Amino acid sequence: MAIHGNKRNYWEQLTKDKIPERKTAVVDKNAKAGEPRQDQQESATIQDKPAKQDAPVPATSSAPPSGERRFRQTDLPAHFIERRKRPRISTEQPPPPAPPCFGDYEPIIGKPELDEIRFLARHLRGKTVKMVNSTAVGGGVAEILNRLIPLMNELEIPTRWDVITGGNDFYEVTKGFHNALHGGEYNLTQQIKDIFMSYNEQNRQRMEFAEDLFVIHDPQPAGLIRAKSPNRGKWIWRCHIDLSNPHPGVWDFLKPMVEQYDATIFSAPAFTRQLNVPQYLFYPSIDPLSEKNKDLPEEYVNKVCDDFGIDRSRPVITQISRFDRLKDPVGVIEAYKLVKKYVDCQLVLAGGGATDDPEGAVVLQEVMEAAGDDPDIIILNLPPWSALEINALQRASTVLVQKSLKEGFGLTVTEGLWKEKPVVAGAVGGIPTQIIHKLTGVLVHSVEGCAYQIRYLLTHPEFAAQLGKNGKEHAKENFLITVNLKRWLLLFQILLGMARPNATL
Predict the structure, then answer these.
(1) Which residues sit opposite 238 in a β-bridge?
(2) Phi/psi of residue 132, each to 5°?
(3) 167 - beta bridge partners?
(4) Neighbours of 71 (CB within 10 A)
(5) How many CB atoms lie within 10 A of CB 294?
(6) Which residues contact 498 (CB under 8 A, 6 or more apart)?
(7) Are 430 and 445 in contact, with CB atoms under 8 Å apart?
(8) What is the pLDDT of residues 433-451, one digit of tens each?
(9) What sign does the dihedral 385-169-182-318 (CA atoms) show?
(10) Phi, psi dihedral angles at 188 (to 5 degrees)
């Protein structure tokens, strides 16, 4: 947490200068250690599963886990207070929308770009790919795979998505690894190593490995490399997290596994480690045609704001992210409180959890306590199928924030850039790749710096609008799913001996 210093002097100096209804995901808290979670007991081969048809459940208002928030006296109209206490969060999961076809991207990136991707894919027709990660919902990796895999299949590159399974003890270990690899303290014991390797071995025995290319995402399933055969397939480890300053013990444990892969991929040059295998740079990506990023009618944006008690007549500051300490939601609240002294505004903290993150409920409670009785802090614990609502929240916001303390890449930043919104974000991880300071957004290093930049943008709308325009062009050129797809096709050709590597990949 940043040190605040003398806030009074700081601020004295500063002043000088049609949408379907949506059933909330249920976490199996009664699962015993060592048992798979209820949502993971079946083999999770994503594209082979039909959409689950839930029985109709009446939509209900969702209250925070600790009960309804109590607000101090306010002049806000009663309907805003009612919605902020009991937001209309959809409780029924709709059928997943049909993914866009490859040709649907032509109006966005142009026909020549599509033709180039088709040319690259032609040489890989019939080659099979397996993608493996730790969760089917929640987090940027699952979002990317949900859009990437249908496109690869449409281009006649059969691609299968498997999700590893594990008990609560496994996910507590991998969450600890995640924090440790970002530089946190961790007590790595032999028991922890045994838990990690045991579940990886269980998944290795459950899965089949008959494809031509295997892409293993992040540390959780890294132990699957034991399935590597000298006569079959090329193996790629795709690391989405910041390894610039990992816990030495945890990295020393994982490194021998990583060095058995044929290639590794990182999201930023600073994330790389000294390895004896080739390393490649891939930016994560968003799908501009997904429910989270497509254009929305203004009527729907207004409806979502009404459902959540957001007053569009006043500035709205929003952070969309998991309830995770590394996303610093409490720091965002502190920054908002500083801004609020000078500019009347509202703060929206919207997010949820991933199935492989056991800390979400604890952090959410910390956020509720930090928000206290302020009626202008709106906290939304959204289910995984809330992409449309998140899209609407971002479009309704005046300023978007991603005040991460550690970050892999931060696709919520990309989402904000794509929507032409001014974004204020922590200068960590892959965020500086997306935000060129004062050109495509604003980078910050502290609570006070975050507050200063938010206040400046709220009081200088022309500058904020220009940042938004620049940011969209930057996102279009570097961070769309079509750019990511092209890089995958080039890498597959290199690993299969069809092309030679070059500096542009």
Answers:
(1) 217, 265
(2) -130, 130
(3) 36
(4) 17
(5) 14
(6) 123, 124
(7) no
(8) 999 999 999 999 999 999 9
(9) positive
(10) -85, 110
